[in-house]
Amino acid sequence: MYNELPAKEQQEVEQALLHDADLATTCADLLQAQRTLNGLRTAPSARSTEAILQYARSFMRKN
């Protein structure tokens, strides 16, 4: 998934994927999940940030 295996072990995994349909399906599902997760937003939108700042400012004004 993350290309972290040594070359020999990677070849063994690739061979296993070629000969085990269930393993190949599971691997494909995991790769799809990885791509989906990598595409998710990792920061709040500008609108959310502004709402939080406005909320915080409301407390600053009361003091």
Automatic annotation (TrEMBL):
This is Uncharacterized protein. It comes from the Bacteria.
